[in-house]
Structures are given as C-alpha cells and as structure tokens.
Amino acid sequence: MIAVPSTQSVVCNLCAADDTAVVARHNGFRIVRCRRCELVYVNPRPPSDALVSLYAEYHARDGEDEASLNRLMGNVFRESAELLCSSRDASRPGRLLDVGCGFGAFVALMRDRGWEAEGVDPSPTVVAAAARKGRTVRLGTLERIDSPHGIYDAVTMFYVLEHLPDPMSALRTASELLAPGGTLLIRVPHTTPIARLLAPLGLGGALYDPPFHLYDFSPVVLRHMLQRTGFVEIRTFPGKTTAPGRLGARIASRVFGSLAAGIHAVTRGTVLLPGVSKTTMARKSSD
C-alpha cells in the first residue's frame, strides 16, 4: 500500500456524473467505472499537489534508467516519428511539444529529423539529465505551461494522459497549443479488459497501478473525450509494441501486439483487440 497524506473524491472527468461501480481495488485505492459514460478512474485519489510529488521520481521506479526506458519505448518512438513526418511536407518540418517527455529521447529523435522539438516533464531528475545532453526540455506540467496558443504543429503524450488529474483539461490545453490542423498523438494503456479476466485470480487490480495511473481509456471513451475537446479525424490503432526489460513481459508484449496488429489489419481497421496499448492520432479542427 502506498502512503499518501490524504485523498479526495472526484466526479467523472468526462460526463461529470457521480454514479460509479467498483471494478478493482489495489494499493488501498478503488478503481471505478462511470455507469453513464464508461470512463474508468481512481476514486478517491490523492490531491494534485501530492501527485506531483509522487511523480517526481516516477521514471526511476523498479531500477529503470534512461537506457532501459529508451529500449522500452524505442519502437513506439520510431513509429511515431515516421507518422508525424509523413503527415507534413518533408521540406517543412514542424514544431513539436512532447508532454511528459522523460529524458527527452523523443525530443532528440524529432530534432534529428529537422523538427523544432521541445519537451516538458514534472521530474527534476530527468529534466536535469536531459539538459546535460543539451536537449530542449523544461521542468513543469502541461497544465502550467506558458507557451503561446497555436504555436505547435504536433503535441505528443506517450503514456501520460492516464497520469493527469484532469485529462479533459489537458486535451483542451493541447488543442489550444496546436495550430489549426495540428496533430495530437497519444499512447495510452487499456487495462480494464485484462484486469477483468484476471479478477477471479485476485490479480487484476495491480495492472491499474494506482495512484500513479488515475484513468484507463477504452478507444470509445477516448474518442468521446477528443471529440468534446475539438479534435477531428480521430484514428486509433495498435501501433508498435513496447520492449519491457523482463523477458516474460517482453514476449507477452510482442505476442499480443502482433495479434492486435493482425486482427486490426484483417478486419481493415474495424476491430481493436481489447487490453493492449494503442496509439491514437487526431487533428485540431481548422475551422
């Protein structure tokens, strides 16, 4: 159990209802599902200031360092870079903000491709490490960023949205920061289907990782959130898999990732395998 100074109850971030069913318990926290819109979230949860403190050393959990995180996300980063670069004229690389950028690996990758890329992260440790490598990364959060509106051509969030206390506000902020027609690229886990399968064995709750993860997004729920915050041309797909350090986790990631990609391809993009992480791309409306 993780000790926090206090907790607070919240209503559904998507529909503002206070009508939930408990789906799991872990680390002394309840994970609930909104009966109206199906958003899954931790309730009650630590207040925002306590969460910032918890996240300060989040990247160093379980002995993870920059090298292991780069291996974990390497395939996802490279695929995302290709997707963003192919969405623009190659002669005109854009300006990009990577939210929750960690050590700045994706920022460096995009700068190598000619983009004016920068990142923001709440961890002083990783921001300092990124700065030592000359990466354009600043300490802070999306909620408190002071960049002018409309200056970015792309905003990316790799496994970030599930950590944020107010994802709807974060998506609105991302929309404000993007130029008309700009691209939002998000990578999020989808834990609930697997957690339900493992629940009879008493194992499902651990997958939610509360209070570090505050939300779990199905593709349908995430689409509704994006639509309500002004995004269009929303597309969700399995994407490349992560490469965890542990052999068993790495094999599982590859097997289920390949299965998800195969099902998605065979069904011409109509079926998304539940329970695997997915990438979502959307555009800010040009209107």
What keywords describe this structure?
7-stranded mixed sheet; alpha/beta; 22% strand; Rossmann fold; single chain; 287 residues; 33% helix; 4-stranded antiparallel sheet; 8 helices
Give the SSE map.
Elements: E1 20-26, E2 29-34, E3 40-42, H1 48-55, H2 66-86, E4 95-99, H3 105-112, E5 116-121, H4 124-132, E6 137-139, E7 152-158, H5 167-177, E8 178-188, H6 192-198, E9 215-216, H7 219-228, E10 231-237, H8 247-266, E11 278-284
Helix pairs in contact: 2-3
Question: Any overview of this molecule?
Answer:
The protein is an alpha/beta fold and 287 residues long. Helix content is 33%, strand content 22%. It has a single domain (20-284), classed as Rossmann fold (3-Layer(aba) Sandwich). A 7-stranded mixed β-sheet has the order 6-5-4-7-8-11-10, sandwiched between helices. It has a 4-stranded antiparallel β-sheet with strand order 1-2-3-9, covered by helices on one side. The chain contains 8 helices and 11 strands. Helix 2 packs across helix 3. 41% of the residues are buried.
| Poorly predicted sequence stretches spanning 5 or more consecutive residues | none
Tally of separate helices: 8
Please tell me the CATH architecture by its name: 3-Layer(aba) Sandwich
Q: Total number of β-strand segments?
A: 11
Beta-strand residue fraction: 15-25%
* Helical residue percent band: 25-40%
Q: Report the mean per-residue pLDDT as an integer.
A: 88
Total count of domains: 1
CATH superfamily placement: Vaccinia Virus protein VP39
**Helix-strand pattern, N to C?**
EEEHHEHEHEEHEHEHEHE
Largest sheet: 7 strands, mixed
Q: What is the strand arrangement across the widest sheet? A: 6-5-4-7-8-11-10
Q: Which CATH class is shown?
A: Alpha Beta
Distance between the termini: 48 Å
